[in-house]
Amino acid sequence: MSDKRNNNGNSKDEQLEQFRSDERDKHMTTNQGLKVSEDEFSLKVGERGPTLMEDFHFREKMTHFDHERIPERVVHARGYGAHGEFELYKSMEPYTKAGFLQEPGSKVPVFVRFSTVAGSKGSPDIPRDVRGFATKFYTEEGNFDLVGNNMPVFFIQDGIKFPDLIHAVKPEPDTGYPQAASAHDTFWDFIANNQESAHMMMWLMSDRAIPRNLRMIEGFGVHTFRFVNAEGKSHFVKFHWKPTLGVHSTVWDEAQKINGKNPDFNRQDLHESIKNGDYPEWELGVQVVPEEDEFKFDFDVLDPTKIWPEEDVPVEIIGKMTLNRNVDNVFAETEQVAFHPGHVVPGIDFTNDPLLQGRLFSYTDTQLIRLGGPNFHELPINRSVCPFHNNQRDGYGRQTINVGNTSYHKNSLSDNHPRPASEEEGGYVHYQEKVEGRKIQARSESFKDHFSQAALFWNSMSEPEKVHIKEAFSFELGMVHDKDIRQQVVDMITNIDLKLAKEVAENVGVTAPVEGGSNVKKSSPALSQENTSHKPDTLKVGVVLDQGFEGKSVQQVVDGLKEQNTHPVVISTTLGKVKGSDNSDLEAEATFDTGDPVLFDALYVAGGPDMDNAFKRNVSYMVHEMFKHYKPIGATGDGQKILESVNVTGEAGVVQNDITDSFLTSFIEAVAAHRHWDRQV
């Protein structure tokens, strides 16, 4: 991690070490340190008498239990976090004076929390939803929080509408459902009547909303921020996280089944990947626009419902983040971490994006109620690695023991300490933007084009992605009971693409438009997941074996998959050793009950010479599901009979061969592709 020190001279890891508690080989005590002699029975009057109030251990234990839950986040309640580090590739000195962006090769510790937005803390991992991607940089100048999402735009343009959006997408108040879903009347009623959401809806209906895992999502700062350099010059900037594994998703049927088979699928994948040393990595990119170019585009650079197309404003890669340590305690770290877009360092400032302006108020207000008071910054996960000194005192959860008799500014008793720092001493100075105008409640005309970039997104999609978007709209609107709302949404889609609107209208039983569509013909290849990294690294391959499998050749395939940094998992009828034809054996880690095909990225069927009907039925089901979800399928030896019986031989992404080396080369190529969309399903 970093060698940056906190006020006790410790690194972030060492700082957290002070708060870790390992209870192994320890005597039980009360919270005051008193050793406890009994933890099974409360103090009573006789064996069958009432419990006595003087049993302080019982009262302390029960009182603490009664207060163990804090209010869950209203949004982003379902989250999972990890520690890591950020390493700078390239100095940003021409653009910003932020200390952690100056020296190539320098590193700072980070903590990242991924989350879904709409669902409660107990909801599943893969609903159709936005994913939060929040990063806390522990820099020597203070904490910088980049609080973003896996989509670069948002539903609304002004923070005052955020409560309305969330009220609409949350479970409907008269029924209390649906949970973690946007497929219901109130949400789509909001969308139809707030059409600034049109661009965001294209993202939400795309595959980006159902990621395969958290290691394969992009991250975006969403808003336009400012870089300010040492000379005081300002540039507009947008932040991007680019995953080194590429951006990959599930298909909708698969996502629904995963939520049933393993609702913790994404968080478990993140935890196990880090535990196994497959450290997730993202490169940090920035789009930079000189302030004098603010009005040179056909969109408003401050509009949070707009992207800056990468073909117009290239993303410059400046560093890499690696997540390399799991949390020790989910509550103490993941749940108590407090992010805030207003946590910035010198050289990073805000713009007049009205959604960002609203967030600058909302986040502090939220932490006060969720974490019980103003001292949430003193929790170990939130503490900066540099000292903090001010005249703030007392309040719930205060840990700092301030010495001295002054807690005000200015003073003479303490020689006016703590005192403000000048800009030369590292003090934060807001960018002196010239602002003038009348006080009004209105929106700039430049914010009122809601459909051009929605059309740009649609034009940029591959054919399979377009099919998925059409199916997503059809599913979501198919769950809407009010026909008028369905009609309103179709009318809105007409402004994006006429053919899409007609097909959705037919699917959801409303009147199809006869004219409309967009004049936008431009596309942005960077928006399509088809143009992302494709490699087999870290993918999980199910290996289906029965007793008597061809030992030597199967072992070669398994070893070859491991060499490509995939993770083969043997699946059989029961757990334990599966004997090969040469008396070798492989350990079955999953059964047909626990190793459902939706949990794997690819399937290799080796089978065995004596497969019974039950075994064949189970494997046939696995092959059918893998095939339906466009995933790679391979078979050698007796396993080829299964592929023939299911009638998938010769299809795209289906590989079979008795020559091990030839099979392995072709199968790894198929696995690297992730999905085979030209398959006839």
UniProtKB/TrEMBL annotation:
Indicate whether Methyltransferase appears among the record's keywords. no
Question: Which spans are transmembrane here?
Answer: none
**Swiss-Prot/TrEMBL catalytic activity:** 2 H2O2 = O2 + 2 H2O
Composition skew (Basic and acidic residues), residue ranges: 1-28
Question: Which branch of life, at top level?
Answer: Bacteria
EC id: 1.11.1.6
**Family annotation (SMART domains):** Catalase
**Catalytic site positions:** 76, 149
Record-annotated residues binding heme? 73, 113, 162, 359, 363, 370
Q: Where is the Catalase core domain?
A: 29-417
EC class of the enzyme, as a word: oxidoreductase
For this chain, the site of the 3'-histidyl-3-tyrosine (His-Tyr) cross-link is 340-363
Which cofactors is this protein said to need? Answer: heme
**Record GO cellular component, one term:** cytosol
User: Which GO terms label this protein's molecular function in UniProt?
Assistant: catalase activity; heme binding; metal ion binding
What's any GO biological process attached to this entry?
hydrogen peroxide catabolic process
Query: PROSITE patterns from the entry?
Result: CATALASE_1, CATALASE_2, CATALASE_3
Supply the Gene3D superfamilies for this chain. Answer: 1.20.1370.20, 3.40.50.880, Catalase core domain
Q: What's this chain's function?
A: Decomposes hydrogen peroxide into water and oxygen; serves to protect cells from the toxic effects of hydrogen peroxide.
Q: Which family does it belong to?
A: Belongs to the catalase family. HPII subfamily.
* Designated name of the protein: Catalase
